[in-house]
Amino acid sequence: MEKRVLFRSVWLPWLLLLPQLVIITVFFFWPAGQALIQSFQMQDAFGMSTEWVGLENFKTLFADPGYIASFKTTALFSALVAVLGISVSLVLAIFADRVIRGALAYKTALLLPYAVAPAVAGVLWMFMFSPSLGVVAYGLRQMGLDWNHMLRSDHAMTLIVVAAVWKQISYNFLFFLAGLQSIPKSLIEAAAIDGASPWRRFWSIQFPLLSPTTFFLLVINVVYAFFDTFAIVDSTTQGGPGRDTSILVYKVYHDGFKAMDLGGSAAQSVVLMVIVVALTIVQFRYVEKKVQY
């Protein structure tokens, strides 16, 4: 029997939803509406004069080779962050779920990176990979690799991917660990009695049961790579060398606050928002079909 909560007053549900609706309106819908209006305008650097230009900002945007290159950079970056972040977190969750002694210490240590601010995480990894001072760069030189993310775009991309994945590992790990612990142990024990190897037990039982968690984290990690990695890029490479690590969210900031192209920056933010919404819809429309609930 399906249970439903019935309110005596028609206004009570809306009253309970009011705080969340206010937060969403003030911090999402209002800024999104402002950006949409501004994307059809041309403003001076101080916002003293405004001219309605229609779709001119979007036409200029898609005619810019640098913006198209930023698309490719963002696609590569988000794919690497999502795949590596989910894979590494799943492996760590599997190992942590099997630990008997000191399990709490291991789990606490793996959760600590989530408490670090993105800018701090970026600075931390920038120092470790610094060509002149970094311990990681020194170790790479000892192995014959001349590391320099300030001059080589592939090194710079590796740096921001590592920093972004490290920052997101704790979030993914927490959900995977909870998912693993919710799987009935009787299923694993029955498979072990039937002679299934640990790999077979994981691939045939645990991983299919983790598919809802994996799908949820896929959506979250894609959104994270598109929006929440600005501080990491800004504190490590600042979009360099050249513009080779200038992902879309960083280009919005650079063009709006450094190049003072307010209309073009607003148009970029609208395009970025549409891309993320479209990717989310595609994931829910097609990827979710393979999820076993």
TrEMBL record:
Transport found in the keyword field: yes
Membrane topology listed for this record: Multi-pass membrane protein
Compartments where found: Cell inner membrane; Cell membrane
Residue ranges crossing the lipid bilayer per the database entry: 12-32, 75-96, 108-136, 156-178, 207-227, 266-287
UniProt keywords, alphabetically: Cell inner membrane, Cell membrane, Membrane, Transmembrane, Transmembrane helix, Transport
Signal sequence extent: none
Residue intervals of the ABC transmembrane type-1 domain: 71-283
Domain of life of the source: Bacteria
SUPFAM superfamilies: MetI-like (SSF161098)
The keyword Transport is annotated on this UniProt entry: yes
Family statement drawn from the similarity comment of this UniProt entry: Belongs to the binding-protein-dependent transport system permease family.
Subunit note: The complex is composed of two ATP-binding proteins (UgpC), two transmembrane proteins (UgpA and UgpE) and a solute-binding protein (UgpB).
Protein name: sn-glycerol-3-phosphate transport system permease protein UgpA
Source organism of this protein record: Acidovorax lacteus
